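Structure catalogue
Derive tokens from sequence
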Amino acid sequence: MSAEGGPSTDEPVLSPGQKSKKPARSQFRQQQLPAWRPILTPVSVLPIFVSVGIAFIITGGVLLAENRKVKEEEFEYTKCVRKYAGAVSPGGTESCYDLLENNNSFTDVNTLAFRCECELEVRLKGFADKKTYIYYGLENFYQNHRRYVKSRSDRQLRAAQLAGGDTCEPLLHRGNVTYAPCGLIANSLFNDTIQLRLSNNPGASIPLSGEGIAWKSDLDVRFKNPDTPTGDICDAPYFSPFSSTKPPNWGVSACQLGEARAPASTMCDTETAHTGVPCVYNPWFSNQPEFGSSGRGYENEDLVVWMRVAALPNFRKPWRIAKDGIPDDTYKITVGYNFPVAPFDGKKKIIFTTTNSIGGDNPFVAGCYITIGVLSLVSGIGFFIFTRFSLADRKLGDVSKLSWDH
């Protein structure tokens, strides 16, 4: 009771104009809305487990059937034997793997476009009249290392600024000029080339395209070339030799990525005085079948694909597309072996694959669906046996069979 004899109240005394913070007395505000509160019993849960099990097994079966429509072939070429003046190296034992390991500045004087060239003969079947994707695969290459992942400048790659930030360390600049692009990721750009020719007709090569291998969102937003007064990005002040220089492991400037092949007389490095290498390779020419690179400069799709780092040390990345498929036949794969893997004890692969209505080869998802479906079905059968033989003489909520003696 209150002092005046009236009923007590917990309502606070409010001054004039003051609003109460107490929630309104509505069912919604007081969490008193009608709700369905099912009582889960073995009998009610049984059909749920059975239904989920059947649905997941059927879904997994469909996914597995679709996955089997994908054709995939994989060929390792880590230690392929070097070609010498158009033929296999004398003795047949000199591999490009060992050659690049022993001499990182090696340039094959017989094929100036490559540091080393080797050849594989393979039989391809099942890719005819199907859009075929060609991937390169690397093993034991840790793109997910913390320092490696940070070593880049996204503002530089979209031409928002010339110099990279401190995140590019330890490859930020050389003397007074900045690396363009800077950082460890760009410096290690994959630069092998792959050419596919018929074994019985070496002059006939399969046309390969580098267009469409990168994410559209990356090309639209994250990678942009600087403005240039002449239309040629190499004339942009951004790529002036007084402002920027190529990364140490690159043979050409960033503005030359994806350019049309120049005459042999102009294939020599303009920075010879700095590098000491008389002639260099450019594995990103756009108008040659053995290159087929798409996009120029920072918008080159090979660069864009590489800059999206892999989460695991063994990975594959898209390289080229055979849009009209690859007829069933025996082929010679000519590899421009430019990317050394001996320093990190790695391996290199070429992967040919097609797709289906749900993407590429991925049996894991189908396996997950089937596994969960089987477990649900087994659980449902277990509930049925338990209900049928253990609870037949017991009513729901009956405590008479419980023991309270402890």
